[in-house]
Amino acid sequence: MEYPLRDGKGTKVHSFKEFLMEDETKIGIFKGSRGHNPDLDIIIKYQEKGKRVRTPKHIHWVIDMLIKKEHNKELSLKFLKYLRDMYERVDGFKNKEDRDNCELKETTSEKLKKFVELNQYGEYSVEFIGHLIELMIKMEKNMPEDNPARVFKELMDSMLKEEEIFVIVSKATQIGRR
Fold first, then answer.
1. In sequence order, which ranges of the chain are alpha helices (DSSP H)?
2. Model's pTM, two decimal places?
3. Which residue, among 112, 141, 149, has the nearest Cα to 127 in the 3D structure?
4. Nearest Cα to 115, choosing from 175, 43, 65?
5. Cβ distance 83 to 67 under 8 Å?
6. CA 39 to chain centre
7. Domains of the chain: which residue ranges?
8. Closest-CA residue to 31 (of 94, 99, 104)
9. In this predicted model, what pLDDT tens digit does every residue of 9-68 receive, in sequence order?
10. With contact defined as beta carbons under 8 Å apart, do 99 and 146 qualify?
């Protein structure tokens, strides 16, 4: 997977790791340069079959989960709880080799199969949302322990508490760390 830099020179950046979903959506992982440890930073992009490369935002999967929740509240809340609990199990990258190998251990087909019914609703599969969130957790955990990023964690807590939509959307669209 590749995307063009906005450098006016036509430079393209290539992913160092890709994950292919069952629906042929690809998630590409690119080397980043920000955060507490820029050598371990990643940029996440995705490409649905026949569409352009896009940068995922929290609001994308949040809206999709709200749609899923309208159709199957109980299973959606179980999936959200699984994703939230995953936050405690997933570690940030320990070194460049760990980043470059980038294994997703919490969102295997086996672990997600109990949630596949949710694929009937919304735009994204549980596989895509799971992979995306596992990667976002790794990215968020790249921040220093004394000044951690908490956007994802707080967003998941708001969704599980079923806070009003204004609160959820506000958390999903905020920029930077809290």
1. 58-71, 73-89, 96-101, 109-112, 126-140, 151-160, 165-173
2. 0.90
3. 112
4. 65
5. no
6. 20
7. 2-173
8. 99
9. 989 999 999 999 999 999 999 998 877 788 999 999 999 999 999 999 989 999 999 999
10. no
